[in-house]
Amino acid sequence: MELKDRVAIITGAGSGIGRTLALEFARQGASVVCCGRRLDRLQETLALIEKERGKGLAVQTDVTDRSQVDRLVQTTLDRFGGVDVLFNNAGSFNAIGGLWEIDPEVWWNDVANNLRGSMLTSRAVLPVMMARDRGVILNMNGGGSTYPLPGGAAYGSSKAALLRFTETLALELERVGSHVLVVAMGPGFVRTEMTELQADTEAGRKWIPSSGEALAAGKSRPPEDCARSTVELLRWINPTFNGRIFGVGMNFEEVAQRLASPQTKDALLMRMVP
After folding, report:
1. d(CA 97, CA 103)
2. Distance between CA atoms of 8 and 11, rounded to whole angstroms?
3. Any idea of the CA torsion for 161, 112, 38, 230, to the nearest 10 degrees?
4. Any idea where the domains of the chain sit in the sequence?
5. What pLDDT, on a 0 to 100 scale, did the predictor assign at position 80?
6. H helices within 34-141, ranges in order?
7. Strand order of the sheet with strand 31-36?
8. Catalytic residue among 87, 93, 155, 246, which?
9. Are 220 and 16 in contact (CB under 8 A)?
10. What is the DSSP track for 4-64?
């Protein structure tokens, strides 16, 4: 899929990776709908897109609120007439610490943002995509999804669930003969508000010291890496990619060739190791 003349919704587009994705998608010719809770940040992203003569729209949205998500999708349809790509990038990682230390509401809010938000946005765009029998949903992977992350149970649990959600939704769409595709994308370790919180707070330094150490050592990836890899993933995406987990820096031409082989039917999927 080339992004020129496509319509993309990017959640969490007011800063960090989401903003960089929005800018790169617009440079590729997509009309980009930027959504998130902070309208001022979204308007900054939109101004950057329009400065480069791109097309976009800022829609303030809490992705955990069903009515706001439905309004986001309807506003997108009213303005651009369709939805070709949804990138569920919005995330939360505020619950840092041992479970006995954490406010349950803060813990659950991370899960709601990362999992419920992606479910609601996916559910809202699917009727549009399925009616046209095309479209791609990308779910943002994150640390702790495939390995334990002490001090980050809410984030890790929600991201692990999001990977299973990705695979299951892909299979559900295949079951009904739909050509809409669902994949997960991992950005690597990036300097964001989320990782800076881990580096700059007492709880973060205690429980997730690797984040501060990586930032201090300059070992974070630029968010542009994720944006460029996502564009390349979309160029090569086909039904063999459905339900799978991808990461920054992959050679997607080689990935496409590998996935065409029956021997790789379990590759890039979330599986228990015997």
Report:
1. 10
2. 10
3. 10
4. 7-258
5. 98
6. 39-51, 66-80, 104-111, 117-132
7. 55-60, 31-36, 7-11, 85-88, 136-140, 181-186, 245-247
8. 155
9. no
10. TT-EEEEETTTSHHHHHHHHHHHHTT-EEEEEES-HHHHHHHHHHHHHTT-EEEEEE--TT
Distance CA 96, CA 204 (A): 6
Which residues face 246 on adjacent strands? Answer: 185
Q: Which residues contact 273 (CB under 8 A, 6 or more apart)?
A: none
Q: Domain 7-258, CATH 3.30.700.30 — does that match?
A: no
> Which tens digits make up the pLDDT trace of 138-195?
999 988 788 889 999 999 999 999 999 999 999 999 999 999 999 999 998 888 888 8
- Angle at the Cα of 56 from the Cα atoms of 52 and 60, rounded to 5 degrees: 130
Residue 68: CB atoms within 10 A of its CB come to: 16
pLDDT digits (tens, 9 = 90+) for 55-79: 999 999 999 999 999 999 999 999 9
Question: Is 57 within 8 Å of 31 (Cβ atoms)?
Answer: yes
Phi, psi angles (nearest 5°) of residue 145: -75, -35
With helix as H, strand as E and coil as C, how does 158-169 read? HHHHHHHHHHHH
pTM over 0.70: yes
Query: How many angstroms separate the CA atoms of 274 and 271, rounded?
Result: 9
Q: Is 155 a catalytic residue?
A: yes
At 193, list the tokens.
């508000």
Could you tell me the two tokens for 143?
């640390």
Which residue's structure tokens are 């990017």? 10
pLDDT in tens, 76-97: 999 999 999 999 999 999 999 9
Contacts (Cβ under 8 Å, ≥6 apart) of 82: 7, 128, 132
User: What proportion of the chain, given as a percentage, has pLDDT over 70?
Assistant: 99
Parallel, antiparallel or unpaired: strands 136-140 and 245-247: unpaired
